[in-house]
């Protein structure tokens, strides 16, 4: 995957993203912070924030189900069902039976794939501070203008594949 040349700018956050009660009610909220598309999630009383576009092909994570896998809460991307840990953006995949172990319930790590951001709360106001972890994380690719073009390209390729499959 080609790396984005767009870099995170110096920190200006934390950014106010809403009132606790509103975000809990909404469960999933989309925000653009410093030009970055971010998903703010409320799940079982805890807030999480991560890049809005899935690291795999840029699919929107907003309507992904939450599942517990190997003891970790993960969002399941609605597009191709990739699993992403809410806490740290780790990608999980089902181990081939030869590598499966009881401790991981058959799930293995791909490493950190999705950039996650820090959520804090003061007097019922919820803030997101963008991650400043240096180095490229796969979900960076789908941010900004270049990311938009990449997402549209993936969409077009998938539509073409579906159209060809329909003709067979
Ligand atoms: S775009 Fe998320 S799994 Fe493919």
Descriptive account of the structure:
- By secondary structure, this protein is α+β, with helices and mostly antiparallel strands.
- The protein has a single domain, classed as Rieske Iron-sulfur Protein (3-layer Sandwich), CATH 2.102.10.10.
- Helix content is 18%, strand content 36%.
- It has a six-stranded antiparallel sheet, covered by helices on one side. Strands 5-6-7-8-9 form a five-stranded antiparallel sheet, with no helix packed on it.
- Strand 6 (72-76) and strand 7 (83-85) form a beta hairpin.
- The relative contact order is 0.21.
- The mean pLDDT is 90.
- Residues 54, 56-57, 59, 77, 79-80, 82 line the site of FE2/S2 (inorganic) cluster (FES).
